[in-house]
Specification:
Blueprint (H helix, E strand, L loop, with lengths): L3 H10 L7 E7 L8 H12 L8 E7 L4 H13 L4 E4 L2 H9 L6 E5 L19 E5 L6 H11 L17 H14 L1
Parallel strand pairs: 1-2, 1-3, 3-4, 4-5
């Protein structure tokens, strides 16, 4: 949805009839997987008036669980000439960057995109990348404040996390620091 907004706005302002928007959806998942991110993206595009088979083409590129495969597919993605590349994973963004892809890339990542060297900063991502992060250390204090407000007697909470996720140690530390303040 984020990828189409600037294109749709510019075309509407210029009074142009909508052209077919071509999106390359790049995912580290396996082909045929039920991707909730892709499903949500399609729904968001429909809300913006983009309908597959009418004014939208989404080409899916599956990494089959391999960052190396995504990097190898980069040339084919560029040759397909999409208007934008959309991905819901840092495991797809980083291989595209290593391959030197210059097309616009819109991402959603669960890590800190600055620390992961995906963008220069949140305010000015730079290059051909923009997107959003689900990284939650900045929200941890507020979440615990709300929890304490809703459940004033709470003394202990559990955090379920994926130890394989690169941001997990930072998120745990942020939670512990926030808990000490609440």
């Amino acid at each position: 949805m984020l990828a189409a907004m600037p294109i749709a706005t510019a075309m509407a302002a210029a009074g142009q009839s909508p052209r077919v928007l071509r999106v390359a959806w790049v995912s580290p998942e396996r082909a045929g997987s039920t991707s909730p991110n892709l499903t949500a993206f399609r729904g968001g595009m429909r809300e913006l008036g983009y309908v597959e088979g009418k004014n939208l083409v989404i080409d899916t590129w599956w990494g089959e669980g391999s960052s190396e495969r995504i990097e190898q597919m980069a040339g084919g993605i560029v040759r397909a000439q999409p208007d934008v590349i959309v991905t819901g994973s840092g495991n797809a963004v980083l291989p595209m960057m290593r391959a030197g892809v210059k097309l616009p890339i819109v991402f959603v990542v669960s890590a800190d995109p600055v620390e992961a060297k995906i963008v220069a900063s949140f305010a000015r991502p730079g290059g051909n990348l923009t997107g959003m992060s689900l990284f939650s250390i900045y929200l941890m204090g507020k979440r615990l404040e709300y929890l304490k407000e809703a459940m004033p007697r709470v003394k202990r909470i559990a955090i379920i996390a994926n130890p394989q996720h690169g941001g997990e140690p930072l998120e745990l530390k942020a939670a512990q620091e926030a808990a000490a303040r609440v």
